[in-house]
Amino acid sequence: MPEATKVTPFLMFNDQLEAAIELYTSVFPDSEVRNSARSGPNGPLVSAEFVVGGQTFKGFNGGPHFGFSEGSSLFVDCEDQEEADQYWDRLVEAGAEPGQCGWIKDPFGLSWQIVPRRFMELVGDEDPVKVKAVMDAMMTMGKLDIATLEKAYSEAAGS
Question: Model pTM?
Fold first, then answer.
């Protein structure tokens, strides 16, 4: 059994914890429910510890006064465009709302950043002109498109 981490994200849902866990564990590999508690033998799921993409979370159905905001999001490090497209498309199919700059809000209100690794490499460049060109291109996108970002990078002055 893996050693527990000192800090674990804790997600408070209204009454959608079970549906959220089903979605998250179906979309991301290395996912599982480790333990859960119900309010009675046939009652709804009240709390759970679950793993999504290798990250452990704790979740709780806390009631209608809990919600999510863009102030917190889950960053998904995607190996390439194909992986980013896969996660983006599966979340959209499940009812997520696409946003700008690689952000998408799932049906439970939780924001995700679906980011191809190459984007992080491009914005980590030492040339501020290239970085600005990539950021400007990114600001026009919903789902991040590496080919378009690479083009902005290569066409930037100072190349």
Answer: 0.91
